[in-house]
Specification:
The complex is a heterotetramer, with two copies of chain A (341 residues) and two copies of chain B (345 residues). Chain A is built from twelve helices and eight strands. Chain A has a six-stranded parallel β-sheet with strand order 2-1-3-4-8-7, sandwiched between helices. A two-stranded antiparallel ribbon of chain A has the order 5-6. Chain B folds into two domains: 182 residues, 3-Layer(aba) Sandwich (Rossmann fold); 129 residues, Rossmann fold. Helices cover 37% and strands 19% of the residues of chain B. Chain B has 13 helices and 14 strands. In chain B, the strands form three sheets. In chain B, strands 3-2-4-5-7-6-12 form a seven-stranded mixed β-sheet, sandwiched between helices. In chain B, helix 4 runs parallel beside helix 5 and helix 9 crosses helix 13. The longest helix of chain B has 15 residues. The chains are: A alpha/beta (341), B alpha/beta (345). Chains in contact: A-B, A-C, A-D, B-C, B-D, C-D. At the A-C interface, helix 6 and helix 7 of A face helix 6 and helix 7 of C. The structure holds thiamine diphosphate (2 copies) and magnesium ion (2 copies). One magnesium ion binds next to strand 5 of chain C. One thiamine diphosphate sits at the interface of chains A and B.
């Protein structure tokens, strides 16, 4: 039985929206999603080589949230994330070389190999921090928003977390505090219906996550997380309200991961979810459905795609090569940064 | 994580001979213990994130929900503090919850309920209620577990009055201690180690109990006493073989329970050897090593021939990357070096 | 400025409800409130003798919640509470002698002097436990409800906590779990607008507490906590639904404490709240407003009151005397019950 | 709680002579430290439950909100874990939060953010961010504080890499260490003791710093070294007077910082006296006592003339009632007895 069917409308009725955007902007969204997809697939392919000695949490199937939401942010805005970091890091513009070095446990990884794949960070582009503890990044992001408000630096802070993250009490605490202080923050919940192999129904009451958030006095909405434009518009509108001095926002995006919770490959055949369910969502793949949409609307994407793809594949090869030949950290590095100077 | 698994496998040494008894893996042994407890006593329930999923808590809860139903074996929300309180409340009302976590790190979210509630209820209400619950978690290590998925927090908890803390090192003890913990009327924590999960060992059929607070001597020796528990015993055991080749004969005490502690066993050993090394899977500072070592200098000073030493984790969070990790975790060779240094003096 | 004015209707329009209840039931509610009031006042008076070496959290002003809610429970139903225990303990029928012995640190206190005033317990009447940690009792009560459901023992569990308790993440976690499992539990929030000397506005976003609870998928309502009948009816209805197999309920009651957070006397003059505010609520005193209501409706309460009062005063004197001459625990007692046998 | 206050007052001994310098109470000294820090650096903010209320965190935050405004000094929701994370996030973005709790017990709700986040951020991200925050709490005791409002949890935290832990014992140190902690770029915890709050002492005007990781010898002596911190030093000091009358001359080392620890100071003292007693306000098992004692037997064994001993809380939760409490907390006389016993041998 398909427990969590896709119930969205895809890009039906979205053609009108196209006029608002430049072709290059629209194509860039596609490029960014495709890039994440191809990077993730290559990580997945190479994972079996055992050279990336780190857990991985692929975002294949969830590209539209990272790309759509980040497109509404500027570089100096801050992004925080949970364990499923790849999309956030890349969406925010994180350096792919540093990411792959981190995943190969190299000294020039974005966290010097000390953080691993769940702690991708790139302060240069506002990829501020991530936590491997479910819900752990939520109050930290809230604190960053407090600092922004305090310093009046105009930054918007956004934090990604999963449906599971809303079950941690600290999420409720953070929503209350953000609302109390009217902090410049977007709580972005990627609801993919599962925590590891546990479906929502064994973990949450019959509640709409975004309505639950609303109960904290927060402006809340739900979007189709397979539709990059819908994600973008919801986030953009939140960002604008926040920059005008509005309080926090909560966005729930319904998404689906096409792979196992962690590691390479899908694990639906183990029985915790139906293969059909995944296949249903795959038919609404965020990358391909947007591609078709652009194509149907004559954005000339068909002719551009091979070139984009080639370019990305080359970049990926280069970055892997860079990571592989990068140096490992030394014993002395271990004892650095326990305390700050 | 294929590499992780192969590493865990490589640490399974001294393969037991199935002709000499029934051989089970550590995980199978745990699974059997839970099954027996659930059969034995209707009050027993098993809960935790994913206990009913295909991975089944490393396999330890495999098949239990099918057999005992959703009301007795169930998945939980990602609400560690809340569920710790739920277990406490249910235990005070006669159930015997076994609350399983993938990692001890997640228990830190529940410290208020565990330390300020579960551990104290029975004392605070003058014995009117009891809190017979078991909290279980497997210490992580390797494959980028890193600072947030590898914490061995037994040292933080051992000073808290009212808790019992178990750290088995063999499949036999894993089963017998689990059964005993479930039967115990006080809140009991079991810390497993991820790297023991594939270990094989002799495990009798049916129900048997390993008493809490009773250690065991894993190897007799004359020159020096090594005290530890869980995976640290494996390291000590490997070291003992290397040391034997060099003519150093160490005694290995497996505490099994780090709260309460089997003082008599340690005392007898130190009286004999006069030398003590404490090994632990957690941070060396302020934890199990410190407590055991202190006992030696407090109670058995006159037996000591020299400094007490410790081998645990350095005063540094766990690095995620493989290269740094190799310098982080102590090895059997480290133990060998320290022991030789101690015996030299 | 009065920050939190009384906005209820008192007993206006409640005369009709009287027909539903027997006189003795109605008078018993008054008796119970009066008894709590008088006990609390005597504790307060004697607190300056320094013989009760324990913090106290008086419920003067909050009698209607304890009495009204507990009147809807049977003895075997379970009650849990936070630090403000006196009303809960007495409302549930806890033994006054054991309570006062506990407060005088005597061996025959309800917890052998080991718990103190914040841990009043009396298993004989279902006063199951309390925690001095804000929010601490909420998941414990939820666990008790799980045990009841598991054993099908038909008990309803209720837990009292303050407005502050809803700020602890564990409250959100407990609501979710109770709703998920449809547990037989009533979450009863006594919202007195303050946590110690901190007003709600410095702690919570603009939210209605009961609406926030509702977001967890829980049947929720708000009542005038000065009206013992309204409290009773809301609780009764929840209890009935629960006994019929309905899920959990959340009740928010707006109340006011007439005294300081802890200790004897009021502390409004220190400035954190207006004396006027307290005085406004005192005009809607749960004990006296109900008294007037009964009187106006010719329940003959005026003639009975002196006798009731005398009887209660005698009981109080006896119980204090009992407590004062009770034995202290001995050193050996200290080492008992660290572990359970 | 009038009785509590009078008890706190009775422990204020050795009243300093105001002619010899400016005398402030412990609380006034803290209040001054916070005021100076807020003036000094715009990044400093002070938060906690009730910091802006009339009680003002025992008086330590009195007047600060009026002076510095609501954006710099503010009350918080009852959300310890959430606010701990908020402080961590704000600190990583350049603020210097001082997060104040009435009791250490409430910090247990925030262990996940404190231990698995604040303490590790700087390490995990290779030094890219820093977490300059201060967590403050006052250990409770007496007047029915009981098991849930009296926990002294320093022992649980001292093994956690990345944290600094301070336990001042005088008004002078309370101010100087607070100012240093706020200036430090690592997460720092200050545990006060409720019974020190009314103590008077000499406190210089203006800003001065007491270095972290540096203890101080409070009394020189030849026969035995007592090591401790915070209120335990008061007990040791009272005991030292009683012992002096009996001709036993103890040295008292006030650690001030229990992480990092001033090894040199302890070593020098033990080298001289050969005897060590460790005193702490927390549970004796597995905490500060165990760690300090272990260091002695690990590093300075050859100086030791006899067993190392400890005086802390028994392995029992705190009883609420006054009568039992009298048997629970160690007294100066207990210290005297242990010291005499140690010197006899
Ligand atoms: C506090 C805590 N509990 C449990 C875990 C183990 N864990 C890691 S990821 C994960 C799933 C989280 O699900 P969700 O938040 O929905 O994110 P998703 O993986 O679906 O993106 C769990 C349970 C953890 N890391 N932290
Ligand atoms: C976790 C925790 N934080 C702080 C405290 C200190 N404290 C004790 S009672 C109290 C006030 C709680 O307010 P509320 O829940 O509204 O209950 P009320 O006192 O108003 O009845 C506080 C903050 C505590 N006991 N536990
Ligand atoms: Mg999910
Ligand atoms: Mg309140």
């Amino acid at each position: 039985m398909v427990q969590y069917p896709y119930e969205g409308q895809g890009f039906k009725d979205w053609s009108g929206a196209l006029e608002k955007y430049s072709d290059s902007f629209l194509i860039d969204l596609f490029y960014k999603m495709l890039r994440i997809r191809l990077i993730e697939e290559e990580i997945e392919n190479r994972y079996f080589d055992d050279l990336m000695k780190t857990p991985i949490h692929l975002v294949i199937g969830q590209e539209a949230t990272a790309v759509g939401a980040c497109a509404a942010l500027s570089t100096s805005d801050l992004l925080y994330s949970g364990h499923r970091t790849h999309g956030a890091y890349l969406g925010k513009g994180g350096d792919l070389k540093k990411m792959l070095s981190e995943m190969h446990c190299k000294a020039n990884g974005c966290a010097g190999s000390r953080g691993g794949s769940m702690h991708l960070i790139d302060p240069d582009v506002g990829m501020a921090w991530s936590s491997a503890i479910v819900g752990g990044a939520i109050p930290i992001a809230t604190g960053a928003a407090l600092a922004s408000q305090y310093k009046s630096d105009q930054n918007v802070t956004m934090v990604f977390f999963g449906d599971g993250g809303t079950e941690e009490g600290v999420c409720s605490e953070s929503l209350n505090f953000a609302s109390l202080k009217q902090l410049p923050i977007i709580f972005f919940c990627e609801n993919n219906f599962y925590s590891v192999q546990s479906p929502l129904r064994t973990r949450q009451s019959q509640r709409d996550i975004f309505r639950w958030a609303e109960g904290h006095g927060i402006n809340s909405s739900v979007v189709d997380g397979t539709n990059v434009l819908e994600v973008y518009e919801a986030t953009k509108s939140a960002v604008e309200k926040i920059r005008d001095g509005g309080g926090p926002h909560f966005i729930e995006a319904k998404v689906y991961r096409f792979r196992a919770h962690g590691g390479a490959g899908d694990d639906s055949q183990t029985g915790y979810r139906e293969v059909e369910e995944r296949e249903m969502w795959e038919r609404h793949c965020p990358v391909e459905s947007y591609y078709s949409f652009l194509d149907q609307n004559n954005l000339g994407i068909k002719s551009q795609r091979p070139e984009l793809q080639k370019q990305i594949e080359q970049e990926i090869r280069d970055c892997f090569e860079h990571a592989l030949k990068s140096p490992e950290p030394k014993k002395a590095d271990l004892f650095k940064y326990v305390y700050a100077d | 994580m294929p590499w992780d698994e192969s590493l865990v496998n490589s640490l399974v040494y001294d393969e037991p001979d199935p002709k000499q008894g029934r051989v089970l893996s550590y995980v199978q042994s745990l699974n059997e213990a839970l099954r027996i407890a659930l059969e034995d006593n209707e009050s027993v329930i098993v809960m935790g994130q994913g206990v009913d999923d295909p991975s089944a808590m490393f396999g330890s809860t495999k098949g239990l929900q099918d057999r005992f139903g959703e009301s007795r074996v169930f998945d939980t929300p990602l609400s560690e503090e809340g569920m710790m309180g739920v277990c406490t409340g249910a235990a005070m009302r006669g159930l015997r919850p076994v609350y399983m976590h993938n990692r001890p790190d997640f228990i830190l979210l529940a410290f208020n309920q565990l330390i300020t509630h579960a551990a104290k209820c029975h004392f605070m209400d003058n014995g009117l209620t009891q809190v017979p619950l078991v909290v279980w978690a497997a210490i992580g290590r390797g494959w980028g577990s890193g600072a947030q998925h590898s914490q061995a927090i037994q040292g933080l908890l051992m000073g808290v009055p009212g808790l019992k803390i178990l750290m088995p090192s063999t499949p036999y003890d894993a089963k017998g201690l689990m059964l005993q913990a479930i039967q115990d009327n006080s809140p009991t924590i079991i810390f497993e180690h991820r790297w023991l999960m594939k270990k094989n060992g002799f495990v009798p059929e049916g129900k048997y109990l390993v008493p809490i607070g009773q250690g065991v001597c894993r190897r007799e020796g004359e020159d020096l006493t090594i005290v530890g528990a869980s995976h640290a015993i494996e390291l000590a055991y490997q070291a003992s073989k290397l040391l034997a080749a060099d003519g150093v004969d160490v005694e290995i005490i497996d505490l099994r329970s780090i709260q309460p502690i089997d003082d008599q066993l340690i005392e007898d050993s130190i009286r004999k050897t006069g030398r003590l090394l404490v090994v632990d899977t957690g941070w060396a500072i302020g934890g199990v090593c410190a407590e055991i070592g202190f006992r030696a200098v407090e109670k058995w000073f006159s037996y000591l021939k020299g400094a007490v030493r410790r081998v645990g984790l350095p005063d540094v969070p766990t690095p995620a990357g493989y290269a740094l990790e190799q310098h982080y975790y102590p090895t059997a060779q480290n133990i060998v070096d320290v022991v030789k240094d101690m015996c030299r003096k």
